[in-house]
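[job 0417] fold request received: Putative esterase
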Amino acid sequence: MKYQFIALLQLTLLLSTIPALSADNYKLGEDSRPHEGVPQGTVTKYHWTSKVFPGTERDYWVYVPAQYSPEKPACYMVFQDGGSYVNTNGDYRVPVVFDNLIHKKEMPVTVGIFINPGEIPAGESGKPASKNRSFEYDTPSDQYARFLLEEIIPEVSKKVNLATNAESHAICGASSGGICAFTAAWERPTTFSKVISHVGSFTNIRGGYVYPSLIRKTSPKPIRVFLQDGANDLDNAHGNWPLANQEMAAALKFAKYDYKFVFGDGAHNGKHGGAILPESLRWLWRDYAGQ
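[job 0417] inference complete; emitting structure tokens
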């Protein structure tokens, strides 16, 4: 009885040191807030009708840093669900974070390309509009990478002088946008060398659960990967998101990728990913030769 009491006490003390799994109380830091004296980039909104995804339309935004000069090609970073990432009052506030980190020279001069998923407009016969997000993001194929490289990147290049080497390109997304970011880099590693996935959907929505196995059985590709997830992420018929992200991290470790996995107590949202975005970007762009 004495030893059982001691064991129970030890367990109680141990549990008391572990944050409650339902906390999810991540807060934005100073790098996610505007500061006086920090030059602000410009954000311009555009609309696009796709041929790679026939019948779809979407909005996209382009952030150009104040430090950009047309004489020097700029890095670029693509964001899926662009409206969420470009929103300066949301969880990620990417333009503000870019302003601060570029000003402090903690990341290179980088153009942000924020792309919403496609929608198929309502038809003349009264057919309602439909969203194409899951097909574009969750399908493990090269179609989305082709959409970027054949349509969006060439269009942005008409407006901004973009660097053409893979080291200067990154891609980021959350949930299905997270697996989409990884897929684009996996399919085109000589174009996208850097990936950030927030609460990525590496589950069986459209077959994306295959990646841990593919990573283990394929020669390592020249991509750097940052994963973020939380213990209270989704668990449904498609799979268990926390387990899927842990399997991704284990596979990347096994295959000796340059990767980082941050696992917290968050749910399926942008709180944790947004709170650590500045540090994630520092890690992603560390040792960039053109900085």
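[job 0417] notes: The first strand starts at residue 42 and ends at 49. The chain has one domain: 38-285.
[job 0417] exit 0
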